[in-house]
Design a protein that fits this description.
Largest sheet: 7 strands, mixed
Order of helices and strands: EHEHEEHEEHEHH
Strand content: 25-35%
Structural class: alpha/beta
Radius of gyration: 17 Å
């Protein structure tokens, strides 16, 4: 997809960069410094609000651009699981997921700026993928956590890495679990930009 303006990714996530590159985009990385959202939001709305917060933080720094913010969370029984605080927390998270299905939600927000650097359009969405885990033991969880892979990942695992050992199946977009929807994002951008041509 050819974009009419430069694309700015408001995230330092290597996985999001990898997905955008695979989709054929050229982009600049400018990570947002933290994010915030109103209290009391359900996970589905919260993850989109966090993505919006990231995009809004970076947007004023770029003129005539498309700024993309994204956030991902793992949700079990309507409770969001963030990144593990330490190895013990990572093991506890994994054991709470074992033998069950959970949802991974990725929020996306895009802001288009004009020549003056002001936002002229702003919109986003949340994509949800269901992930089912095999059953496994505490020793298996501890062995995985010892690799350090899960320590910077929501829910304490990376589906694209060694964490694949736990995944029995998924229903939805694989890339949503990695951190940025694939097909849904391309279709969203197509509609987002098409509205500018009307």
């Amino acid at each position: 997809m050819n974009l009419p303006k430069p694309l700015i990714l408001a995230s330092q996530s290597p996985r999001r960069q990898e997905i955008l590159t695979a989709a054929g985009f050229t982009f600049t990385v400018h990570p947002a410094e933290g994010e915030c959202a109103p209290e009391g939001l359900a996970p589905y709305d919260l993850v989109c609000a966090l993505a919006r917060s990231k995009a809004e933080q970076v947007a004023p720094l770029y003129t005539n651009s498309l700024i993309l913010g994204s956030d991902t969370m793992v949700v079990l029984d309507d409770i969001a699981l963030g990144k593990p605080k330490d190895e013990a927390d990572a093991i506890t998270m994994l054991l709470s997921l074992q033998g069950r299905a959970h949802r991974v939600m990725t929020g996306v927000w895009v802001i288009e700026t004009n020549e003056a650097g002001l936002p002229v359009k702003s919109s986003g969405f949340t994509d949800v993928t269901e992930v089912e885990f095999y059953g496994f033991s505490r020793d298996e969880a501890a062995e995985y956590v010892a690799t350090k892979e899960p320590m910077d990942k929501a829910g304490g695992y990376g589906i694209q890495g060694k964490g694949m050992r736990f995944v029995k199946g998924i229903r939805g977009d694989y890339f949503t679990v990695m951190g940025l929807p694939g097909g849904p994002l391309l279709r969203f951008l197509s509609e987002f930009l098409a509205e500018n041509e009307k």
